[in-house]
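User: Just a sanity check before I run the rest of the batch. Below are the structure tokens for the first item. I only need the designed sequence back.
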């Protein structure tokens, strides 16, 4: 009985810490969107004539591999963004890898 209670608490803690990690990533993602390139991704993407990232992702029209490729390689008017993303303070603080940081913006934009 005692042992199974311990297991239950352990499982709950693991679930909670997973949740915290996901929320943290989303918060860092929001900071990236607001701060990358100094003026944020929104400086261009909140303008209606540029791709509306949230809408595209929610509609299933911008899969993560395509998102990641554009950030790494750029695309026409879209500058390469990985360096700018890695320079955002909270990304450095969280010690994220490039892929984790890209995931974080994608997670933020998926909400
Ligand atoms: C200087 C303006 C500018 C900034 C800053 C910018 N983008 Fe873009 N982005 C564009 C333009 C313009 C396009 C459309 C390129 C094309 O398809 O010709 C684009 C395209 C994209 C695409 C591809 C969309 C698709 O449907 O293939 C992604 C993903 C993207 N941007 C993400 C970001 C993220 C994330 C940031 C911030 C880290 C960012 N952009 C910052 C201008 C910008």
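Assistant: Here's the designed sequence for the first item:
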């Amino acid at each position: 009985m005692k042992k199974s209670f311990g297991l239950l608490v352990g499982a709950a803690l693991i679930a909670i810490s997973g949740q915290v990690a996901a929320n943290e990533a989303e918060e860092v993602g929001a900071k990236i969107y607001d701060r990358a390139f100094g003026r944020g991704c929104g400086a261009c993407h909140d303008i209606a004539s540029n791709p509306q990232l949230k809408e595209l992702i929610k509609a299933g029209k911008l899969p993560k591999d395509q998102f990641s490729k554009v950030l790494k390689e750029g695309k026409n008017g879209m500058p390469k963004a990985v360096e700018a993303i890695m320079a955002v303070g909270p990304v450095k603080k969280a010690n994220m890898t490039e892929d984790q940081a890209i995931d974080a913006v994608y997670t933020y934009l998926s909400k």
